[in-house]
Amino acid sequence: MKRTFKALARSIAVAGCLAAAMPALFAASAEEDFRSGLSAFNRGDFAAAMRLWRPLAEGDDARSQASIGFMYHRGLGVETDDAQAAFWLRKAAEQGQAEGQLMLGSLYFFGMGVPQSYPTAFAWCELAQDNGQAEGQICRDAALQSITADAQLRDAFRMAQEFRERFGRKTDDGGPTTEHRGNGTENQAR
Fold first, then answer.
1. pTM over 0.90
2. Mean pLDDT score, 89-115
3. Most CB atoms within 10 A, among 6, 43, 45, 89?
4. How far apart are CA 22 and CA 90, in angstroms?
5. Pick the CATH number of 26-95 from 1.25.40, 2.170.290, 1.10.40, 1.10.3470
6. What whole-number distance in Å separates Cα of residue 11 and Cα of residue 159?
7. Which stretches of the chain are DSSP H helices?
8. pLDDT category, 24, cuts 50, 70, 90?
């Protein structure tokens, strides 16, 4: 009886250790799969990149979502489909992924796969810039210059603030950052 209890206790301890280690093992595997997908992408094996990134993207990996969105936008290994590109880029953008935010803003600027909207383009590109994507400023400024009505301008600034609160880069405590690195254009009167 004592021996059975010790064996059971040992089995429970081993199972507990394995259960505690599983998230780290999956995280390492996900990181390895992303990097393998990136290597495949860089050598032009887009089918392999998609095969590796798709499960990660479906599991909410923002980098993989943005990468798949880019592939659909450019037609790399898949038919060009800007609606699918927007779908995946939005998923990445809403998780605070700066490249996804920039590319989604660009789709809104040109009306590719989404309805054309300069205010929405401004908001996503502003957020991308806030999150460290340097090209976000170019996209944001182009959208801002394309807005001709005061109501659209107000919508753009309102959306940018809303997106910043909802989809800004996440802090260590899980909340969105509220840092803003704009150039002051958000308060310009037209």
1. no
2. 97
3. 89
4. 29
5. 1.25.40
6. 54
7. 2-42, 46-58, 62-74, 82-93, 98-110, 118-130, 136-146, 150-167
8. very low
